[in-house]
Every structure is written in structure tokens, then in C-alpha cells.
Amino acid sequence: MIALTPLDCTSEAARQRLHELRETGEAKSEQVGARAVVW
Question: How far apart are alpha carbons 38 and 1 in whole angstroms?
């Protein structure tokens, strides 16, 4: 097991946050796409 430095922990947390934001963004774009189809 490689010991994580504070920077590694921060970047890992940031990576997870970006992943969450991307999933949220995709969900929103799907809603927008559905709305566009309705229009």
C-alpha cells in the first residue's frame, strides 16, 4: 500500500467531486434533452 500524501488525498477527493459534478451535469443535460424533445 502506498502512503497517500495530503496532496494525493486532496486530488482524489477533487477527482470524486468532479465525477459527481459530471454525473449531475449529464443528468441535467438529459432532462434538457427530454425537454427539447417535448418542445
Answer: 52
